[in-house]
Amino acid sequence: MKIRIANLRAGLSEDTGRLLPKAAKRLGLKPGQIAELNIIREAVDARKKADIRFVYTVEVLLKADVKIPSGIVEKDSQIAIVKEEKVKPLLRGNEPLTSRPIVVGAGPCGYFAALKLAEAGYRPILLERGYDVDRRTEDVRRFWETGELQVNSNVQFGEGGAGTFSDGKLTTRTHDPRITEVFERLAEAGAPQEILYKAKPHVGTDVLRQVVRNLRKRLEEQGGEVFFGAQVDELILEKTALGRRVAGVKLTKESELMAEHLNKHANQKGLTKFSAGSSDAGGLSTKSLPVGSLLVDSPSESREIPAEIVVLAIGHSARDTVKNLYHQDVPMQAKPFAIGLRVEHPQELIDRSQYGEMAGHERLGVADYQLHTKIQEAGRTVFSFCMCPGGTVVAAASEEGGVVTNGMSEYARDTGVANSALVVSVGPEDFPSPGPLGGAEFQRIWERKAFELGGSNYRAPAQTVGDFLADQKGDLTGALVTPTYQPDVTAANLHASLPKEVGEALQAGLKNFGRKIQGFDMAQAVLTGVETRTSAPWRILRDESLQSPDLHGLYPAGEGAGYAGGIVSAAVDGLRVADAIISTYRLVEA
Questions:
Q1: Rounded to 10 degrees, what is the CA torsion of 562, 564, 566, 568?
Q2: What is the pLDDT of residue 263?
Q3: CATH superfamily of 95-332+537-587
Q4: Of 400, 413, 517, which is closest to residue 447 (Cα–Cα)?
Q5: Is residue 355 within 8 Å of residue 46, measured between CB atoms?
Q6: CB 415 within 8 A of CB 391
Q7: Does 257 score more than 60 pLDDT?
């Protein structure tokens, strides 16, 4: 018999070996009557700073001849008998599929969708506009050191998505049962096993890169293929008696690496190569192509790849792709998001605030925070976002002439500096133009202002909290932490990089947060701007089948389509879309 017990509490000096006798006592049993104990969840209760506790949920397996005393489960609502639920196999659909599915984007959503499809035998083709994680890391480091930006290989674009250069936090608000599958797959790919039970799991950017490599390896072992330097420019569409449907994707003329790679791959694998042709779809009909074939034009022209299924997992910064989709009448709408600044404090200040005298205890690690307030007079919400304990503020631009900030931590979280974005909600009413692209235009305006304030060389404008609250330009000589943003920062008045109402809301928010965390609004803390890429400023619409309501075969997914926010929810959405495809289509060899 397996039993789940919640709210087992242990002090900082008690190791997990003490959980078994505690569990036995709750069940009215002796420790020797329990065959096995597994930790399901571990959280920290720091409400009483003088008595910080770990709080556990565990599952215990009783020995074969042992039964719990009668009435235990009925009397204690935190004890429950675990019922083994049989996982129902996903039933395959009946709609014939004669070409390999295309997944656009190698972030968490794209990778998990492609992996699920590959394991089901659909042999997906994964197209990523950026490069593999190793080349991408080199490009990002070069940008941080020299200011030399690669527009398709940066913090936003490339293998692993934007989350690759982040804290690698795995917290989520979604309750989809697929979360378990996401965590298990990440752990299998090299993430720390503790992510399976920690209440606030994180991987760290250094570990996450290896996880991404292993996900790619698994995908390829299962018959999927990944191509880098492959930017999708637009969809290939065709009209049918039932309406419009997807017939494939067209790559940009600049996808030189893609053409080179595809040709080399086709020669090695013996795949069929096709030249550009003409048809009602604007290229070759997908129905005439065998599964496993690829369409490759000459390197000097746009390339087309046929497909009846396209999963659009492009990430929240693919403005050019979204613009082209908009002009192809792909249904979409503007979506609210948030903009603001990065704030940096000594990590010790945050640790003391959260853990009191126990700050620095080896079992607690570094502390984080989550702050939120409604500014009534402004009618806006101010909140912390993407908090990175022991991390750095990083340059996250993906367009020339713009400065964008983000936060990043390695697994050790040991820089001694805490940072998070402090952001303010904005919506279509704030955007300079109506329609789905207005939010991206709004982002670009403030990114360019930040670029100019920083010196037009990818240095970021920075300011102490004291000067920001006083709305005055100062210098950074009194700052308690050295700004961690690279290539460098330039002292400036950050109000010039924000809409007036956003700057005023942040001033009020900082003061409010100073009442929640002592010293949070200290004059010597540092602000760096500007944070604009909190989520996609658009939503690419889909119906209950998870397809575009006007384009059969197009599956908008993940953060870039407006249906996720963070690594886990994006991965879950990728699995959800893959399940929808599998339950609709059956693969047919031509």
A1: -160
A2: 52
A3: FAD/NAD(P)-binding domain (3.50.50.60)
A4: 400
A5: yes
A6: yes
A7: no
